[in-house]
């Protein structure tokens, strides 16, 4: 991720919304003459978003060159032009004015291009004025390329980076442990290192540290062979930089798609199910045992931040709720609790967490704070699961790794599936996990106790 997730404008996909609004306004007011306007409007939206996704049209950063933006605009509108004229023949629209359609395309191109470049300029100015809130970085290496990179950080403040310190591996007394302490003490966001000045053992040590502490690690490349992994090249001015790990949900469009889906799905569940199920369950829970209807517990979420996770109470009130997981035959679980836990109904209040933004419908399951601290020290790369929001259900859960951690391999496999989800997210994968979750709830699961 190249811009800090705390940069709020990044998380708002307002450019796609603005572009679609522009297309709709021109389509509505220009005398195009289509027979089915309510068919044309969703058609151009779907066409625009499909082309944008394939073209990576909205992946524009403060350091992106103007020539690259122009190339994206050209590709976007060339293919959009083809989709527009395909609409005439595909839906048999002989009354559509070709001239008005050309006007629609020209007006859309001018207006959308203007707003795109205006957004680009504002993004750079915004970053320049908020340099104190820039992404904090350290650079490891002393050579021409690291000198140039540090110069870019210092001079091009609109990129949103602030170099805090440089470490020289060839200096006497250099130690990665000192680097790690500084990174943690000063809350550094990203580490840039020159591959040519580090041994393979040091690179591996850097990768493990970054993975386990939610730090972004990037390499300044040379001719040295790094890893047999898919690496992403980017350019800061004219300095090439390699990203070791690409997180799909750190992309603005992907984040916006997932967040929109979460809001719609959560709203449907809350209105259609929880609105009548909650008072019914509240009555049943209170009849069996005294205590609150809802159970809330602190758990770790995005970027390891803590939040309150809500559930229907399935246990008698006890002092160990925040310390111990439910086990098979757990005496704390009530009769009603056994039923709602087996069917996963107890998890439904977490759709409020989804609606308010602390959770997602699908993602790595959030763990208790005590367990997070424990597993972070025991399980390698455990903290990678906190690069995305936690979910009500997840890939690990539908693959059989839900509930109680009985042996070390349980948490190892759970983390393995969580990391796969983080690195390979897609909306299709989310839908597949949701469907499998529903099927598992209907037939029952062995560890749902």
Could you characterize the architecture of this molecule?
The chain has a six-stranded mixed β-sheet. The chain has a two-stranded antiparallel ribbon with strand order 7-8. A two-stranded parallel ribbon has the order 9-10. α11 (369-378) links the parallel β9 (360-362) and β10 (391-393). The protein is built from 14 helices and ten strands. The chain folds into three domains: 8-129, no CATH class; 131-246, Rossmann fold, CATH 3.40.50.2300; 252-443, no CATH class. By secondary structure, it is of the alpha/beta class. GO terms for molecular function: phosphotransferase activity, for other substituted phosphate groups.
Count of helical stretches: 14
- DSSP strand (E) fraction? 5-15%
What pattern of helices and strands is seen along the backbone? HHHHEHEHEHEEEHEEHHEHEHHH
Report the sheet with the most strands, covering strand number, pairing sense and barrel closure.
6 strands, mixed
- Integer average pLDDT: 82
Give the topology, please.
Elements: H1 14-29, H2 37-55, H3 66-90, H4 98-129, E1 135-140, H5 144-155, E2 161-167, H6 176-185, E3 190-194, H7 200-212, E4 216-220, E5 232-236, E6 239-243, H8 252-288, E7 294-300, E8 306-312, H9 335-342, H10 350-356, E9 360-362, H11 369-378, E10 391-393, H12 395-398, H13 408-423, H14 427-443
Helix pairs in contact: 1-2, 1-4, 2-3, 3-4, 8-10
Membrane topology: Multi-pass membrane protein
Pfam families: Bac_transf (PF02397), CoA_binding_3 (PF13727)
Domain Bacterial sugar transferase: 258-442
């Amino acid at each position: 991720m190249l811009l800090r997730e705390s940069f709020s404008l990044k998380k708002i996909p307002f450019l796609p919304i603005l572009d679609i609004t522009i297309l709709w306004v021109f389509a509505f007011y220009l005398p195009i003459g289509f027979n089915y306007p309510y068919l044309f409007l969703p058609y151009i939206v779907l066409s625009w978003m499909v082309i944008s996704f394939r073209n990576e049209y909205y992946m524009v950063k403060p350091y992106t060159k103007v020539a690259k933006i122009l190339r994206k605009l050209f590709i976007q509108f060339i293919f959009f032009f083809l989709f527009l004229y395909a609409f005439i023949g595909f839906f048999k629209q002989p009354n559509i004015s070709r001239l008005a359609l050309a006007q629609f395309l020209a007006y859309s191109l001018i207006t959308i291009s203007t707003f795109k470049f205006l957004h680009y300029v504002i993004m750079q100015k915004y970053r320049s004025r908020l340099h104190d809130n820039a992404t904090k970085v350290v650079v490891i290496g002393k050579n021409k390329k690291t000198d140039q990179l540090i110069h870019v950080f210092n001079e091009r403040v609109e990129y949103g980076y602030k170099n805090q310190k440089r470490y020289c591996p060839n200096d006497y007394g250099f130690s990665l442990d000192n680097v790690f302490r500084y990174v943690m003490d000063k809350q550094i966001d990203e580490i840039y290192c020159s591959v040519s000045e580090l041994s393979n053992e040091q690179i591996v040590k850097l990768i493990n540290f970054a993975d386990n502490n939610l730090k972004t690690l990037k390499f300044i490349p040379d001719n040295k062979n790094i890893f047999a992994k898919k690496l992403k090249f980017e350019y800061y001015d004219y300095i090439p930089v390699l990203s070791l790990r690409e997180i799909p949900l750190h992309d603005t469009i992907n984040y916006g798609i997932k967040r929109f889906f979460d809001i719609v799905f959560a709203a449907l569940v809350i209105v259609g199910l929880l609105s009548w199920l909650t008072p019914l369950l509240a009555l049943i829970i209170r009849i069996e045992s005294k205590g609150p209807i809802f159970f809330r517990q602190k758990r770790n979420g995005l970027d390891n931040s803590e939040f309150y996770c809500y559930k229907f109470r399935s246990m008698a009130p006890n002092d160990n709720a925040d310390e111990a997981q439910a086990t098979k035959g757990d005496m704390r679980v009530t009769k009603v609790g056994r039923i709602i836990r087996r069917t996963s109904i107890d998890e439904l209040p977490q759709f409020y967490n989804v609606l308010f933004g602390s959770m997602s419908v699908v993602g790595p399951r959030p763990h208790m704070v005590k367990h997070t601290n424990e597993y972070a020290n025991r399980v390698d790369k455990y903290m990678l699961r906190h690069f995305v929001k936690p979910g009500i259900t997840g890939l690990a859960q539908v693959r059989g790794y839900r509930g109680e951690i009985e042996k070390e391999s349980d948490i190892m496999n759970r983390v393995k599936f969580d990391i796969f989800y983080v690195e390979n997210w897609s909306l299709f994968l989310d839908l597949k996990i949701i469907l499998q979750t529903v099927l598992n709830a209907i037939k029952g699961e062995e560890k749902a106790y």
